[in-house]
Amino acid sequence: MPALPALLLSIHFSSFLLVTMAPRSGSQAALLSSVRMAAILDDQSVCGRGERLALALARENINSVMEGGARARVEVDIFELQRDSQYETTDTMCQILPKGVVSVIGPANSPASGSTVSHICGEKEIPHVKIGPEETPRLPYLRFASVSLYPSNEDMSLAVAAILRSFSYPSASLVCSKAECLLRLEELVRRFLISRETLSIRMLDDSLDPTPLLKEIRDDKVATIIIDANASISYLILKKASELGMTSAFYKYILTTMDFPLLRLDDIVDDQSNIIGFSMFNTTHPFYLEFIRSLNLSWREGCDLIYPGPALSSALMFDAVHVVVGAVRELNRSQEIGVKPLSCTSPQIWQHGTSLMNYLRMVEYDGLTGHVEFNSKGQRTNYTLRILEKHRRGHREIGIWYSNNTLAMNATSLDINVSETLANKTLIVTTILVRSNSLS
Ligand SMILES: *[C@@H]1O[C@H](CO)[C@@H](O)[C@H](O)[C@H]1NC(C)=O
Ligand SMILES: *[C@@H]1O[C@H](CO)[C@@H](O)[C@H](O)[C@H]1NC(C)=O
Ligand SMILES: *[C@@H]1O[C@H](CO)[C@@H](O)[C@H](O)[C@H]1NC(C)=O
Ligand SMILES: *[C@@H]1O[C@H](CO)[C@@H](O)[C@H](O)[C@H]1NC(C)=O
Ligand SMILES: *[C@@H]1O[C@H](CO)[C@@H](O)[C@H](O)[C@H]1NC(C)=O
Ligand SMILES: *[C@@H]1O[C@H](CO)[C@@H](O)[C@H](O)[C@H]1NC(C)=O
Ligand SMILES: *[C@@H]1O[C@H](CO)[C@@H](O)[C@H](O)[C@H]1NC(C)=O
Ligand SMILES: *[C@@H]1O[C@H](CO)[C@@H](O)[C@H](O)[C@H]1NC(C)=O
Ligand SMILES: *[C@@H]1O[C@H](CO)[C@@H](O)[C@H](O)[C@H]1NC(C)=O
């Protein structure tokens, strides 16, 4: 084999070392000889999302281009959560604080843990870089806020609404896998109320069997179906829809999962199907090919399943490390920064945290997930979502949504009929909430 496996091995090895290493110095406010940050992982999936490797790649990527040793090395301490729990996360944060980190990244997929991290980081004035969806309901106002690399809930709603607009606002059905769905997509629901078009909303019950919902949608002759669920649940729904003959040309599906590119629907889609979703990846980023090659290689060492492509959370981890380092370097130009070990039991805060947070909000960086820039609320701004449509052997790009809420669609690939856009229909608003125990 060529040299790459050895490189990967050494990365695995060194990230393992980091986990087990004791905090290095007890000195107060030591000047930054290394930029140390913590990443919290919550990946319990069998084959993994590649976040650990993505962090190692980011670190190596940054450390290998240091100019003449003038810059501090980057270290990433990795912590794993076993479950989405406030208690366990508090415990993890109490282990992180004494290490003297400049920032905490993640977790990707644990809402309760994510809020706890934000809260404790807020108390200690350590910037928290989020890589998962916004909390619902929203966190109480935190004086010391965080920044998030994941699209805001409002942006998700606007992007879906923009696609619906390009379909001339058809009646639609929203299928939700979780109750937070309505809070997450509040803006989308509001737009339906304004447009006075019909939106019916259906919740998947605990059995996760979409059959009854899909049959209702079929009986209602609603052709546009929005699915708000993670990639694996979205797959289940589409698989069932295909069995019910609901992936014909009549139906259009819009998926909100940001892991849409990972969905393998070869056994479900045919030339008639319209299954649309989003991707944040910038596939022409200079590191993109090497990124997926490394993740692919590592996946195939440990997993028999076909590598589906990179999970968004791994790319967001990669970008998060770069964003933090970029902000630290900018801050370091204007003041001497030091870190000091903090603890859960003392009221001490990190005195440079507020400055670093200000620099984080000013970062501009072109990452694997596109242009990174934050608005005053710490949300992504000035970025794009690529709109993809599934076909038999993968997907093709059919448009782009700009975060200034401009949609550019490749009209040829969809049967958009401009003459229908001015339709003035009689409209009803219905909201059907199916309680989970009313189905079986
Ligand atoms: C901050 O700047 C000093 C002087 O240029 C440099 O020695 C140090 O490594 C820098 N620290 C970081 C974290 O980049
Ligand atoms: C998707 O959601 C289901 C139920 O909420 C959960 O069991 C599953 O682990 C999730 N899958 C992924 C890939 O996150
Ligand atoms: C992963 O690597 C295998 C073997 O080189 C290749 O056939 C496959 O296309 C790769 N998958 C992705 C998603 O890049
Ligand atoms: C993707 O990356 C390329 C190369 O860095 C860059 O020129 C381009 O602007 C990026 N595209 C987006 C949408 O961020
Ligand atoms: C948006 O990002 C691009 C780079 O992708 C940059 O050139 C432009 O100045 C940014 N626009 C605003 C309004 O910040
Ligand atoms: C439109 O389709 C062409 C050809 O398939 C593709 O090259 C282009 O990137 C697409 N444009 C958009 C905005 O999706
Ligand atoms: C939104 O951004 C795109 C790309 O930067 C630009 O072409 C378009 O004119 C902008 N639209 C508005 C309404 O500002
Ligand atoms: C668009 O709508 C007009 C009038 O309803 C119809 O005559 C035409 O065939 C439609 N075009 C397509 C491509 O569906
Ligand atoms: C819709 O219908 C109403 C009542 O007939 C009419 O006043 C209104 O101008 C119509 N709007 C459009 C956009 O055709």
TrEMBL record:
Annotated GO CC locations: membrane
Residue ranges constituting the Receptor ligand binding region domain according to the UniProt record: 52-390
Endpoints of the signal sequence: 1-29
UniProt keyword annotation of Transmembrane present: yes
Pfam (any one): ANF_receptor
Compartment(s) of residence: Membrane
Keywords for this protein: Membrane, Signal, Transmembrane, Transmembrane helix
InterPro entries, alphabetized: ANF_lig-bd_rcpt (IPR001828), Peripla_BP_I (IPR028082)
UniProt xrefs under Gene3D superfamilies: 3.40.50.2300
SUPFAM superfamilies: Periplasmic binding protein-like I
Keyword Methyltransferase carried by entry: no
Name of the protein: Glutamate receptor ionotropic, kainate 5-like
Native species: Salvelinus namaycush (Lake trout)
Gene: LOC120047242
